[in-house]
Amino acid sequence: MNRKANKRVIPFFGLSMGVTLSILSIIVLIPLASLVIFTAKMSWEDIFATITRSRVLASFEVSFLTTFIASAINAVMGVVLAWVLVRYDFPFKRLLDGMIELPFALPTAVAGIALTSLTTNNGLIGSFFDKFGIQIAYTRIGITVALVFIGIPFVVRSVQPVLEKLDSTYEEAAGVLGASRIKIFWKIIFPEIRPAVLTGFALAFGRCLGEYGSVVFIAGNKPYETEITPLIIMSELQEYDYSSATAIALVMLLAAFLILFFVNIVQARSTKKLKGD
Question: What is the pTM for the complete model shown?
Answer without folding.
Answer: 0.83
